Amino acid sequence: MVESLTINLVVDSLQAMWHLLFPHAVDSGTVSPRPGNTIQHRHGIHELGDHSCTGVPVGPEYLSPGPTNVVTGTYAASVPPGTQVSALDPSFRTTYSSQWNLSVEQRIGRKNSLEAAYLGSSAHRLPFLTDLSQCHPRPDLFCGAATKPWPQYGLVYWATSAGNASSEMLIARYARRGTGGLSFHFEYTFAKTLSDAWESSLLPRAQIADCRACDKGPATFDVRSRAVGSVVWEPSIGRGRLATGWTISAITTFATGQPILFTGPNQTGTLFLNHLPNRICDGRDSGVSGNVRSNGFVWFDRTCFPVPPTGHFGNSGSTALYGPGINNWDVGVGKLTRLKESIGVQARAEFFNAWNHAQFQQPNGNAGDGANFGRISAARPPRLIQFVLKLVL
Fold first, then answer.
1. Is residue 74 in some structural domain?
2. Helices marked H in the chain — which ranges?
3. What per-residue confidence (pLDDT) applies to 71?
4. Which of 197, 246, 303, 364 is the residue whose CA sits 20 to 30 A from 71?
């Protein structure tokens, strides 16, 4: 018999919630549609021709009518060649996200429980920046200067809200409580997180400005499999102060690695994007990743990711391979000694990464770094030992 069933749905957006609660509400004002995308130049707000946009519902207290002058080829001719322009998509919207989960729990006897859960989330209208004046590459990814829509400009910073992300997780849990002073908990998660937008620190992932699908792939924080187990044991080995009050605990974590962020040298002369290498073979090789200590800490087959020819974009995904995983044990031993009924002294020794297992950081994903490309150069902290003495009242 199923003990409990939980279903939750969360919509995390003020705008979305407003329309759910008040579907017939009228906006306080509407900006009339204008032909062209809004452009911000050194001397004010302008509009860029050859594009169209729809009306933007906003209140008059937020946005006054903009200027009517249009940035055209003639206007661009009056500014120095290579001028950088900042552009804001007039269809820019507030990011909204939704979350949902379903869980089923089954108790087995008085001390055991099993739980299976599904968690999902999606986010849309994520902001990202790119170069609107980028060339239009050919099928072989050659970037010709003649295909730039506005060659007079060196760069058009284009801020838009067309990014998307999604995450799905399957979780299994088992717990056993208090048998002979022993409690146990185990949890396994199988997950997948995808994104086509910037994720943190304003680091660009986009390579081709007008191909959002080209940038879709695993997020840099994606972890496919993760298993965590914990145990707490309070042994009863006799009577007296020396035999009682002992606690032994351990937490172990096993997880697959996170995606490697690939980059490459600028072969096209275009700025403000994540240049990528080519991918001519898979790149995963257990003979390489399994022998990092003997091969100079190289994690993958670097010959599979050559730098593209001059003038070409790379065809590799930005997160095509995964880095090293985690194999970690934390162990603690404690003793509580009662001096009086209401006063005790607790002494603990805690060992983080108890077996001093090397937990490697991500390898270098820059194909232009020569011999350092694909090489691991750092690791997470080694074994740490901590001693604690605490007065318990």
1. no
2. 14-21, 73-76, 286-289
3. 54
4. 197
Nearest to 254 by CA among 357, 166, 376, 116: 357
pLDDT of res. 198:
72
Does 20 fall in a domain? no
Torsions phi, psi of 272, nearest 5?
Answer: 60, 50
Instruction: Give the number of domains in the chain.
Output: 1
Q: Is 64 within a domain?
A: no
- Note whether residue 119 is domain-resident: yes
List the domain range (segments joined by +) for residue 105: 4-10+87-392
Q: Provide the pLDDT for residue 199.
A: 67
Residues in the chain predicted with pLDDT less than 50, given as ranges, are 1, 11-64, 66-67
- Residue 242 in contact with residue 270, Cβ under 8 Å? no
Q: Tell me the backbone φ, ψ of residue 334, rounded to 5 degrees.
A: -135, 155
What is the pTM assigned to this prediction? Answer: 0.76
Contacts of 371-374 spanning 24+ positions with Cβ under 8 A: 373/302, 373/305, 374/298, 374/299, 374/300, 374/301, 374/302, 374/305
**Tell me, what's the pLDDT at 38?**
34
The tokens describing 154, both together, are: 């060196």
- Distance between CA 35 and CA 37 in Å, rounded? 7
Tens digits of residue pLDDT in 326-354: 999 999 999 998 888 888 899 999 999 99
